[in-house]
Amino acid sequence: MFSKDTYIRRRNRLRKDVGNGLIVLLGNEESSINFKDNWYHFRQDSSFLYFGAVALPSLTAIFDCDSGEDMILGDELTIDDIVWTGPQPSIASLAAQSGITKTAPSSQIETLLKNAISAGRHIHFIPPYREEHVTKLSAWTGKSIDEIRSGESIALIKAIISQRNIKTSEEIVELHKAVDLTSAMHLAAMQYAKPGMKEAEIAARVNQVALAGEGQLSFPVIMTKNGQVLHNHYHGNTIQEGDMILCDTGAEIPSGYAGDMTRTFPVSAQFSETQRELYQTVLNAHEVAISALKPGIRYKDVHLLACVELAKGLTEVGLMKGNPEEAVAAGAHTMFFQCGLGHMMGMDVHDMENLGEPLVGYSDTLKKSTEFGLKSLRLGKELEAGFVITVEPGIYIIPELIDQWKAENKYAEFLNYDKLESYKSFGGIRIEEDFVITENGADLLGKPVAKTVKDVEEIRKEALQS
Amino acid sequence: MFSKDTYIRRRNRLRKDVGNGLIVLLGNEESSINFKDNWYHFRQDSSFLYFGAVALPSLTAIFDCDSGEDMILGDELTIDDIVWTGPQPSIASLAAQSGITKTAPSSQIETLLKNAISAGRHIHFIPPYREEHVTKLSAWTGKSIDEIRSGESIALIKAIISQRNIKTSEEIVELHKAVDLTSAMHLAAMQYAKPGMKEAEIAARVNQVALAGEGQLSFPVIMTKNGQVLHNHYHGNTIQEGDMILCDTGAEIPSGYAGDMTRTFPVSAQFSETQRELYQTVLNAHEVAISALKPGIRYKDVHLLACVELAKGLTEVGLMKGNPEEAVAAGAHTMFFQCGLGHMMGMDVHDMENLGEPLVGYSDTLKKSTEFGLKSLRLGKELEAGFVITVEPGIYIIPELIDQWKAENKYAEFLNYDKLESYKSFGGIRIEEDFVITENGADLLGKPVAKTVKDVEEIRKEALQS
After folding, report:
1. Per the CB < 8 Å rule, is A213 touching B229?
2. Which residues form the Aminopeptidase P N-terminal domain (chains A, B) (predicted)?
């Protein structure tokens, strides 16, 4: 965690930006797996962590915009608890570290909020993504479940985004650590995979690296020979010579910051010729996108630059035809690249996604598209210095999509359906890295991991000889 | 999963036992970590899996006790979903595998349940442990949140317990697999730990074994040099010569069955004399308990036998005094053994804990004690052939408890507080295995893992030489 002053400054600005009323930030609860007391690993809500800094379950923070008073409400441990958990620092002592001197038992929340509502004061909260936040807010405010679901404060959301958007230098230090651990996970996967292994074994290996580094996964591991399935969490296949592995994984470190990278590598010591061609195309698109990163450019435009580069490579290979710019303008490239170039990253791997993509990734002047492809681009707005983003172009050959579009003769002027048939079992390729936007361009986060064909093949060669 | 007939038989018996009305089993949802679409690994509800057998999120099963009709309600994937998830078997095809031929979209649930309620029919559900089940049931039935929280069906709970209590031979096969994987995790930990490692590195290693074996953890790993903290999930300490590691971990296999074992081993190649004495005491209590396992004995009595054996050993060492039986009758042993000897195990590591300990672990004639120690014994009732249970005695030296009881001069006739002072940094020891109760006794589940002093030290010696 950062200095006390950092948190005080953040809260002062937040209260000022919101203006008036009470800001209520709900910390997360323990999350039950298959019965109440069997828990997934605890993850504090990122905004709670950002402003309140205490990573314990079942806390609520209330910041009073009018009086300027901040408090954390929650229940201290009893001796019965301590038998099970060991001695723990008190909520009061942890809150004091972020400059919050007032704490109280959670039984006071309801009275506090209901009194405020009676006095005509506004209660600001962000959209709940865990159902217990909905029922708690409903009980505390006397509002119905439906009123809570649609009652989020746009003023609060915007105020939080305006701060968390821009990562400070102390946050960049944390992000470098998170991506360093992420890099180590990727290198481990490339060095570990052998023909005959199950995907689960390689997934287990990268998970081990994250946990041994005192991290967690920032999202479920994608480790698959079927990289064309964008969110593939099945790890039951056995990998063989000739397959490619798409590994999309990242670590989250104890301070809450995330990394998110993807590498695609051959199970054999070398890519096949077909694999190499498309891999190089994705890498070219990746590099074109990185070169374009700087304050002022819309990320949507960076996305489109990458799409054109993908279309050029796909045209050279003969899977697309016609003019690449025109193909992208028409949307034909979405046969291969159905999703977006990247997203914000920070304490959340899709940073602030719980606050809503329209406000996080877009703006009053740039709304999100509803077209196939662009509708999956999470970030479109103008980049600013201090934004942290992922760049992750890919080529995904999805047999079901080929069949459907071929039947419709869709984009027939740009797509070579005949050749596509022979690529149906190709799979998918993605290359992903994380960047912070600087005054003039962008800096890579974390330790670089092999990404050229030559460098990747070198690691695979060594791995297969060991 | 088992044969279609197994599931049909289970549901026939369930409907008959419940008698009338509609049984509604809610499958689990994806569980959000820090924003809606970032999920912990999916875990289906165990009762849903036991009777419905489909391990997909967002499903609901309705079994009609009056008509005998069973159905699963949920929404099939669209082509947009398939781009992200790849082609998946349909709900209908999966349901058919367990003999459920009727499926419908989830939009029909509300009408179905409200019509049934209007017709005066009873809706049976089990106590929700995930909040979204509360709000869904409330919306579907028109009952308030509070009515849902207290509206569980005792008839349904009892009917489920009466089946899941007794593990069939096909379930025992699965449990052996789960405990085999659990055994492998423990052996890996003993072979891997070295002085200078962080606890997190060893925890990561056992997690790797579970995942590489295509399992999951059945509960969060306890891997600590502070074994006296019963539920210790902190992994930040560095282990040193002279420390003991308490490793309490288990795997869950894809069929949903769990393992749960504990081993305590020295970081050095050998236990210290002090460690060896108390380790042997715990092992003796473990063996005494195992020898007592058979149908007809109350598990509470097995627990008390183990407690007396612990008290005997602690008396020999000089930490307790007086008559061990009398000490246990008075409760003095709870200074060292604050919890229970074990619990039911099955698809849940604490099997059916979501159905409530009073009904799962106790009976109409044996109620749970409220005394310190016994109130933490999850299982007290008479054992029956087919029960699967854990046996996990321990000795935990908790400095905070010593200070508190010493100040109260509690159990002074049985506790040697002077000697206890010198044990304050001792830590904790637990030895845990899993058993199925047979017609005449009990069988160990899974491959045996070293547990005698000699066998444990042999593995540690090899580990430190490698």
Report:
1. no
2. 2-134
B337-381 pLDDT, tens digit each: 999 999 999 999 999 999 999 999 999 899 999 999 999 999 999
DSSP state of B195: T
Question: For A400, which of B79, B145, B200 is closest by C-beta distance?
Answer: B79
Calpha distance A368→A178 (Å, rounded): 29
Helix (H) and strand (E) counts for chain A?
17, 15
**A34/B43 Cβ within 8 A:** yes
The structure tokens 């000795």 sit at: B395
pLDDT digits (tens, 9 = 90+) for A33-79: 999 999 999 999 999 999 999 999 999 999 999 999 999 999 998 87
Task: Closest CB to B84: pick one of A132, A135, A230.
Answer: A230
Fold of the CATH domain B4-164:
Creatine Amidinohydrolase; Chain A, domain 1 (3.40.350)
Do the chains contact at A404 and B87, CB–CB below 8 Å?
no
Chain A nearest C-alpha distance from B101 (Å)? 26
What is the interface size between A and B, counted as CB pairs within 8 Å? 179
All residues of chain B having their beta carbon less than 8 Å from the beta carbon of residue A354 are 34-36
Q: Which residue of A has its CA nearest to B401?
A: A83
Burial tier of A16 (Cβ tally within 10 Å: 0-12, 13-18, 19+): exposed
Cβ of A38 within 8 Å of Cβ of B232? The answer is no
The CATH superfamily label for domain B169-465 reads: Creatinase/methionine aminopeptidase superfamily (3.90.230.10)
Please report residues of B whose CB lies closer than 8 A to that of A338.
Answer: 83
Residues of chain B contacting A207 with CB distance shorter than 8 Å = 204, 207-208, 211
Chain A residues touching B205 at Cβ < 8 A = 208, 212
Q: What is the largest CA-CA distance in chain A?
A: 74
Choose from A25, A30, A33, A136 for mutation: most chain B CBs within 10 A.
Answer: A33
Nearest beta carbon to residue B39 from set A36, A83, A220: A220
Residue A419 contacts residue A231 (beta carbons within 8 Å): no
For chain B, give every residue range classified as CATH 3.40.350.10. Answer: 4-164
Could you tell me where in chain B the CATH 3.90.230.10 domains are found? 169-465
Encode chain A (466 residues) as per-residue pLDDT tens digits: 899 999 999 999 999 999 999 999 999 999 999 999 999 999 999 999 999 999 999 999 999 999 999 999 999 988 778 878 888 899 999 999 999 999 999 999 999 999 999 999 999 999 999 999 999 999 999 999 999 999 999 999 999 999 999 999 999 999 999 999 999 999 999 999 999 999 999 999 999 999 999 999 999 999 999 999 888 788 999 999 999 999 999 999 999 999 999 999 999 999 999 999 999 999 999 999 999 999 999 999 999 999 999 999 999 999 999 999 999 999 999 999 999 999 999 999 999 999 999 999 999 899 999 999 999 999 999 999 999 999 999 999 999 999 999 999 999 999 999 999 999 999 999 999 999 999 999 999 999 999 999 999 999 999 999 8
Q: Which residues pair with A12 in a beta bridge?
A: none
- Rounded distance, CA A455 to CA A186, Å? 13
Contact state of A211 with B219 under an 8 Å Cβ cutoff: no
Shortest distance between the Cα of B158 and any Cα of chain A, in A, equals: 17
Residue B440: strand, helix, or coil: coil
Angle between helix axes B453-465 and B273-292 (nearest 10 degrees) is: 130
Q: A287: Cβ–Cβ under 8 A, 6 or more apart, which residues?
A: none
Are B347 and A212 a contacting pair at CB < 8 A?
no
| Distant-in-sequence, close-in-space partners of A315: CB < 8 Å, separation ≥ 6 | A321, A322, A324, A327
Predicted local distance difference test score (pLDDT) of residue B195:
98
User: In DSSP terms, which residues pair with B349 in a beta bridge?
Assistant: none
